[in-house]
């Protein structure tokens, strides 16, 4: 170890340790006689190692940086010519042709106190539909295509059954004030109405049979709330004209029987009198 290294090691020690090392080095004497620089360096290193053993342990080898600090995070300054080139080639976006006043979004006026005219119009339409319809059915629309839904409309239109679609808030507002409040729980999700001025439940069920994506939830037929099974049972009933004919036949039979019962006694009396008159005539002829 050279003298420079020894001095570096001594310099890295504390002040108290340095004073003690210097005192020990001062007490030790180098051997007499001329010595080469190499020999004096070895002797100095030996003296330092001996003093270090008496004081404390010191590493025999240390890495000492003599150059600049090891800080690599600072970016190197860009050359002046490169700065000029970067400034010249910097992208400048073109200004928009539309003025800034047109691009600013206008604040929407909140007219909470005014009534929604569109909602009012739809409510009036729904009220008219309810008043003019004898059959009002509620359907749920699932994943059905636009073409299939259009074909379903045409099939129902052949039987004078029309599809009506209204917003949920309009339906709740109108039905909540009418006698059809029992249908309100059915209006959830994608629903629509099938209305008709005639009670054609059988034709409606036949038309929706080819569209399984449409589910019947309930209906109001002739002021009666019916479930899906109730609508099926209602469709199995005979037609109104046939029922009216059966009623007329039953009533005519009863009137005929009543007339026969009322004229039965008088007719029998007439028959008995005729028979009695014939018998008296025969007896008179025999006498």
Descriptive report:
The protein has 287 residues and is an alpha+beta fold. Among the domains are: 3-29 and 37-55; 117-235, Ribosomal protein L10, N-terminal RNA-binding domain (Alpha-Beta Plaits, 2-Layer Sandwich), CATH 3.30.70.1730. The chain has helices at 3-12, 15-27, 37-55, 80-88, 100-103, 117-132, 146-158, 168-175, 201-208, 228-235, 240-286, and strands at residues 135-141, 162-164, 191-196, 214-221, 225-226. Strands 2-3-1-4-5 form a 5-stranded antiparallel beta sheet. It starts with a helix and ends with a helix.
Instruction: Report the CATH C-level class of the domain at 117-235.
Output: Alpha Beta
CATH architecture of the domain at 117-235: 2-Layer Sandwich
Class of secondary structure makeup: alpha+beta
Q: What is the mean predicted local confidence, pLDDT?
A: 78
**CA radius of gyration:** 58 Å
- Helical segment count: 11
The backbone outline, from C-alpha atoms, is: rod-shaped
The helix-strand sequence is HHHHHHEHEHEHEEHH
Main sheet: which strands, in order across? 2-3-1-4-5
The parts where pLDDT drops under 50 for at least 5 residues are: 1-15
Quote the distance from N terminus to C terminus. 190 Å
| The CATH homology group name of the domain at 117-235 | Ribosomal protein L10, N-terminal RNA-binding domain
- The number of strands is 5
The share of residues in extended strands comes to: 5-15%
Percent of residues in helices: 40-55%
Largest β sheet strand count, sense and barrel closure: 5 strands, antiparallel
Organism: Engystomops pustulosus (Tungara frog)
Protein name: Large ribosomal subunit protein uL10m
InterPro entries: Ribosomal_uL10, Ribosomal_uL10-like_sf, Ribosomal_uL10_bac_type
Family: Belongs to the universal ribosomal protein uL10 family.
């Amino acid at each position: 170890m050279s003298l420079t290294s020894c001095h570096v090691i001594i310099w890295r020690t504390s002040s108290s340790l340095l004073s003690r090392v210097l005192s020990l080095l001062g007490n030790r004497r180098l051997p007499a006689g001329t010595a080469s620089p190499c020999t004096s360096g070895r002797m100095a290193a030996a003296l330092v190692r001996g003093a270090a053993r008496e004081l404390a342990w010191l590493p025999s080898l240390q890495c000492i940086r003599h150059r600049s600090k090891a800080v690599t995070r600072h970016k190197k300054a860009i050359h002046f010519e490169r700065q000029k080139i970067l400034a010249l080639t910097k992208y400048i976006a073109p200004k928009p042709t539309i003025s800034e006043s047109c691009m600013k979004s206008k604040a929407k006026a909140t007219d909470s106190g005014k009534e929604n005219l569109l909602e009012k119009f739809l409510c009036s339409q729904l009220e008219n539909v309810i008043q003019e319809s004898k059959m009002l059915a509620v359907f749920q629309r699932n994943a059905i295509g636009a073409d299939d839904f259009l074909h379903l409309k045409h099939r129902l239109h052949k039987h004078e059954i029309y599809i009506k679609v209204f917003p949920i808030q309009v339906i709740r507002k109108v039905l909540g004030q009418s006698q059809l409040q029992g249908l309100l729980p059915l209006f959830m999700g994608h629903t629509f109405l099938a209305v008709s001025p005639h009670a054609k439940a059988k034709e409606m069920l036949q038309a929706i049979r080819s569209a399984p994506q449409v589910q019947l939830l309930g209906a109001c037929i002739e002021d009666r709330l019916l479930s899906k099974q109730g609508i099926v049972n209602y469709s199995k009933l005979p037609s109104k004209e046939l029922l009216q004919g059966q009623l007329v036949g039953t009533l005519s039979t009863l009137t005929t029987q009543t007339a026969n019962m009322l004229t039965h006694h008088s007719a029998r009396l007439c028959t008995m009198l005729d028979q009695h008159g014939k018998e008296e005539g025969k007896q008179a002829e025999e006498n």
